[in-house]
Design a protein that fits this description.
single chain, 1 helix, mainly beta
């Protein structure tokens, strides 16, 4: 009879421990928020090192000056300077900023050297955009010297997630980055 009580006690204690473990793993703490998905990056050079940071809010106009200090130190490598999504591909820093407008979405790409974040004005840049309904659009993105970035207006107003592949060629080297944004 004593061993039956021990077995019952052991079963109850084991069950309680399992329930506590499950509860601890499944309920986030109040200050924990699920992280947004990281953009996916690609490169023509498979051995190139890549690093992505989570997207930040892109509500502010990218042509306005930032309140942040100029991020050119190695500790800021891979961080968004313009409030956009960042993909580091090899020696390059790609930052995509999407701004919703009444007539569509303005897409800006800041293509920079990764070491000092100096702009690269002589690349050939285009965007392949997949709309929320699955339709694909191609956009040429000319360099805008006044803003030191490449840009185009996507004249679509469909609500949902847009997937963007940036195709760039810098002195014969193909550098690509994958991004996503919602409208």
């Amino acid at each position: 009879m004593r061993s039956l009580k021990s077995l019952k006690s052991l079963t109850i204690v084991s069950s309680l421990i399992c329930l506590i473990a499950i509860a601890a793993c499944s309920s986030p703490t109040p200050e924990t928020k699920p992280a947004p998905p990281n953009p996916i990056q690609t490169s023509a050079n498979p051995s190139a090192s890549t690093k992505a940071t989570a997207p930040k809010s892109s509500d502010k106009n990218s042509d306005q000056a930032s309140d942040k200090p100029n991020d050119k130190t190695s500790e800021n490598h891979g961080k968004a300077n313009q409030g956009g999504q960042v993909v580091e591909v090899g020696a390059y820093h790609l930052e995509l900023v999407s701004i919703n407008e009444d007539g569509g979405v303005h897409i800006d790409l800041f293509l920079q050297n990764g070491s000092d974040h100096s702009p690269i004005p002589d690349a050939k840049v285009s965007a392949q955009v997949q709309l929320p309904n699955g339709t694909k659009k191609s956009l040429d993105m000319p360099y805008k010297a006044d803003g030191k970035h490449y840009g185009a207006l996507l004249s679509e107003t469909i609500a949902g997630e847009y997937k963007v592949v940036i195709l760039s060629e810098i002195k014969g080297e193909k550098i690509n980055g994958r991004f996503a944004f919602k409208r």
